[in-house]
Amino acid sequence: MFKSKTNIESIGFQVESSYSSLPQKLFTLLQPRKGSQPSLVVFNDALAKQLGLDFSKVSDPDKASIFSGMYQIPGSSPLAQAYAGHQFGRFTYLGDGRALLLAEHITPDRKRIDIQLKGSGPTPYSRGGDGQAALGPMLREYFISEAMAALNIPTTRSLAVVRTHQKVKRQVDLDGAVLTRIAQSHIRVGTFQYAIAEGGVETLKALADYTIQRHYPHIMDENRYLGLLNEVIKAQAKLIAQWQLVGFVHGVMNTDNMAISGETIDYGPCAFLDAYEPKTVFSSIDYSGRYAYINQPAIAAWNLVRFAETLLPLLNKDQFLAQSLAQNSVETFLPQYKVEFLKGMRMKLGLFNIERDDETLIEELLSIMQKEKADYNKTFVNLALDLDGFRKNPIYTVWLEKYELRRIKQKETLIESVELMKSVNPAIIPRNHLVEQALLQASDHQDLSLFEYYLDLIRQPFAYSVEQIQIDQPDIQSNKPFRTYCGT
Ligand code: AMP
Ligand code: MG
């Protein structure tokens, strides 16, 4: 029950369950664990408004009731989704082990979104895990996913973080928390892997039809399942190019962490590059560097081959024909990715038109940056603003001469070029040491002032305020590589 006089109707939830109409193998209806005294830590008012939800008359304790799962949204039937996945290359049965689809909500512009709780207690898919999440990592997902959204990169969003006031046992006892995550859906490559492995072709077909209707209703291809494969390939080519362009390392690109919608999903051991080192890995468990920055496009292609394999029975009755259709499609991924990457890189360099030697020019810059361990993000900001004596720096002299000759092969002026650069090169990205500092204050000292201050700056990464440019510095004091941990 609510603590104050909240009228749930006034919030404007438009709940409609559709996932539960799929074959039952794909989910388990389940209520969230009921805590006793949840309290609100952060709430994303702007996102709530975008979703057509009005919380202006809802007290913080009542928000905490809703977004810890204590108060059930009328008409909703929460469920845990089943999925499988290749984790570091090995196939495993997984599923929402600590998450629940609280409700599907229809926004005022008729978009269906998932409202999911993460850290809401054990489910039949917990595999011995406790179903809990700790405050620090949930605030981290909140922060990074909101930063990605501000960078115009498709991503799940974060609506709220609630403290459960229950301890979570890790190496030490930590404060428990629940994150509310918003997604176009939580259907993953792994959901398709589960559907075919556990349910067979009927279940697979039902899932594929549902997915087409929900995400790609415009598919008109004669072979609609091939159309689905091609749409997912296209969406992922765009997404991964955007990651590479901002220096984002996802860290755990298992097939269960690749969303069919093309959104970035599951923020675990992810982080942004400081120095440009293509082999950068942030995850504490990625010993072989499988998910290193430079490997992300190839790993996405590998995951898409797994996706294509699941679809084979739907592509054609003739197995060989099905395989060749799938192969032809998957082979377009890397070329599509490259087109997107080059398009984005040209913009980062303030180039409007296409010239034959652009790729070489880009490769040469990246190679100097790698050799000099230049900060990835700062290099582009400095080029745009000519900061830190960038144009006088001898390491760039030869490259800059070529670049200037290239830049004048377009009709746009230098001013227009700089404007283009400032519209795509963020003045600020989440710096690992600053995010850690903000999280430490928030989770260990219950002081959210730094978290909120930093988040405010991150929310407008193209504003180019003096404050943003000053704050956006790599950690020069630390000589140890940054490490993050997943599943905590
Ligand atoms: P992730 O590495 O976060 O993508 O999670 C991989 C799988 O482990 C997913 O099926 C999660 O639901 C599950 N999982 C992660 N942490 C926990 C936990 N504390 N309790 C139960 N399941 C978990
Ligand atoms: Mg996951």
Fold and architecture overview:
With 488 residues, the protein is of the alpha+beta class. Among the domains are: 8-183, no CATH class; 189-340, no CATH class. 42% of the residues lie in helices and 13% in strands. β4 (84-87) and β5 (90-93) form a beta hairpin. It is globular and about 65 Å long. The two termini are 30 Å apart. Residues 94-99, 125-126, 129-132, 252, 256-257, 266, 268, 486-487 line the site of adenosine monophosphate.
Detail the poorly predicted runs: none
> Average pLDDT, to the nearest integer?
95
Distinct compounds present: adenosine monophosphate, magnesium ion
Main sheet specs: 5 strands, antiparallel
Structural Rg: 23 Å
Structural class: alpha+beta
Say how many strands there are. Answer: 11
The gross shape turns out to be globular
Termini separation: 30 Å
Strand content: 5-15%
Number of helices: 16
Helix content: 40-55%
Order of helices and strands: HEEHHEEEEEHEEHHEEHHHHHHHHHH
Biggest sheet: strand arrangement: 2-8-9-7-6
